[in-house]
Write a structure and sequence with these properties.
The structure is a homotetramer of 214-residue chains.
Chain A (H helix, E strand, L loop, with lengths): L2 H16 L6 H8 L3 H7 L3 H19 L10 H17 L1 H4 L2 H7 L1 H27 L7 H23 L9 H15 L5 H21 L1
Helix pairs in contact in A: 1-2, 1-4, 4-5, 4-8, 5-10, 7-8, 8-9, 9-10, 10-11
Chain A binds a DNA duplex (21 and 21 nucleotides) through helix 3.
Keywords (chains A, B, C, D): DNA-binding
InterPro entries (chains A, B, C, D): Homeodomain-like_sf (IPR009057), HTH-type_Tx_Regulator (IPR050624), HTH_TetR (IPR001647), TetR (IPR025722)
Organism (chains A, B, C, D): Photobacterium sanctipauli
DNA sequence: TATGAATGAGGATTCATTCAT
DNA sequence: CATGAATGAATCCTCATTCAT
């Protein structure tokens, strides 16, 4: 494994554990047993490390989430999708603990983040549309858009929100699954009879996951 | 005005503007034209300033939000309530931009925050219950709880979320009102015919506010 | 009791407890429940407080130790004298924990200290001379002077020395009495048969004291 | 010469000159023409510098003073030993000017200091025993122990004591030699006829040294 | 590629002291 | 006499970053 990648990995790990502002470049170098000079040979500055982590995040996102065509959208696909979104967010959770501050310092990163958010929005919209046309949801356009926005907000805020809800909260996979359940809980009351069945099935799936992990 | 209060005010202002991690105690002192020594005469350390700001926040919260009795809950009261919650969050918005990090450093603050969150939860539940018993909502217990959780999450995350949704996003009152609208949008699809009317009225009110402020 | 005197007393107490460098003027004021301004009304600066404490010490010393005439010197007088010297040193023990540093900063104090030391020397010499002329000691002039010097050194260093001989050593009266015993132990091997008897008597007296205090 | 060692050396020099409490880490850095950051690259904090100086002292002590076997103890060896002890104390004299305060702050250092003191005690005891068995001294066990204690006290206190005996006293080598003479003066009245001769010889040696240095 | 010593501006904080009231 | 808010230079220390090797 290349040093550059090891740095990214170590930084990600340490940031997730202790928060980005509390991890210095020296911490990262020491953790890897390399010199600070070497770290700066591979990265111009700390910002660039964060940047690279985000790039990896965005890349992971893009390969997993080819914009879905409406016909492909099934309950199964949805499950896979939600699963993957939250897992990704978990993997890069340090990011969400400081998002406003990190983005303020780095306009370029802000731009990239917005693109990712846009992709998330597109996908959520596509799924909701597909649900509606499949007769699982019964909503007007405005309500559908509002629903999509809410889902995006919940997805994007979940980890940060949970971090603040308990002293010394560790974000585990169970917490992630509860996030998916929270989103399903938002969709369920809006579904048709057929839709409800599907959602309940998904919920059952995630309840299992939560219990297995607790 | 007492120096102690001026410090709290200046700190709040600067934190909101530039983010707490980017504002040093010297910045605050210089901004007020006082010496660093004087600042430390009034506060043992930076943490204590943040603490005091939070205490003020909690105090504001508590005097404005005496736990509502269910009979008092009307659409008008709700409007006043939501308005006030978001305004308060706006006033102390720096806090929300770094919540995980701020709380991690200060377990006492974490405790206080959870109490405030618990109060928020109680009030939201009281309102939703009242809505249901007033025939504005039609939901089972589990769904009602889920709804309340979603509303609390949206309320608690709105400012942080919005901060990340645009480059150099300034959180204006209009953004705040959109948060209220978002929450109403979550409630609306779940209301009865009578409930829908009330919600639409509230939405209309806030749409006006948004337009006035933009 | 006058504020000025209360300040001296409080400072002495705190200095003894925690060491002069670790006690700020604010500590002293807070301990007395007075304002720092008030403290500085009575004393130009911290140095002056130390100075005043020393003056009190020198005063105590002078009233207790009128240079002894040789004829007055008996074993009993000696006992009273040694007792008093060490008690005084105990009362002002903070001083001995930092003597070089305190004196370096304050030439006037250095001067006063030397005068006190000179008085100590005179008295020790007087006693030793008297012992010799009384047939208790058998020494040549040079040896007598050397003995007096040693005794002065031991007396002046005892508290500082003991402070360093155990972790977190508290200087108790027992430690003080051991100092007297140490000095008697220096004198004893040099005494005549008659002198030895006297010294052993004194030693017995102090051994009792030590045991009572332990 | 390594920067780390240069820092230790400069600190030692400045501490000796002006007293440890009066020398800041910035002083040391400036004195060496290096940045404060560099100093803190080599030492975690000021305490660690003091610690390192003491370690060097303890090391010097240990290599020079292998516990002496009784047969090796001759007047010549004693001379070398005393010489070295006082020289070492002179080299690290800042330490003795603040011993109580320095040890109070640093329990680990206190522990090391006590070990060094214990070594000193062992060596002094060994020498005195050897003197007695060689017929140079005539003392009972209790008196021998008492003598050893006195010698240890004088040795350990000499520099601190001398520092306080004159305004702005500079501790020169002559002062050191006088310390040795003081100790010899304590031993001399207790010696046998043969012993006295040896001691007088040593005294003569040191009187020469003092005169040469004054 | 990698080292690790070095930088230096800047951080939080302290404390003897002053001064208007 | 007394208050207590205010000063400001100084302290210890951090950390992102550089650079000669």
């Amino acid at each position: 494994m290349k040093t550059r990648d090891r740095i990214i990995l170590a930084a990600l790990e340490l940031f997730n554990e202790s928060g980005e502002p509390n991890i210095t470049t020296n911490h990262i170098a020491a953790h890897l047993g390399i010199s600070p000079g070497n770290l700066y040979y591979h990265f111009r500055n700390k910002e660039e490390i964060i940047h690279s982590i985000f790039d990896q995040y965005a890349h992971d996102l893009s390969i997993r989430f080819q914009p879905l065509e409406e016909t492909q959208i099934t309950a199964d696909n949805l499950l896979v999708y939600l699963d993957a979104v939250f897992m990704l967010m978990w993997r890069y959770r340090f990011f969400y603990a400081n998002l406003p501050d990190i983005l303020r310092r780095d306009p370029e990163l802000q731009e990239k983040y917005l693109q990712a958010q846009e992709g998330l929005h597109q996908n959520i919209m596509a799924m909701m549309n597909s649900f509606r046309s499949g007769g699982l949801l019964e909503l007007e356009d405005a309500d559908l858009l509002s629903l999509a926005n809410t889902l995006k907000l919940v997805a994007s805020s979940w980890i940060c929100y949970q971090t603040t809800q308990a002293p010394g909260a560790k974000i585990t996979k169970a917490v992630i699954y509860q996030g998916v359940l929270q989103m399903l809980g938002i969709v369920r009351p809006l579904t048709t009879a057929i839709g409800k069945e599907q959602v309940l099935q998904l919920e059952a799936h995630y309840c299992e996951q939560v219990e297995r992990d607790v």
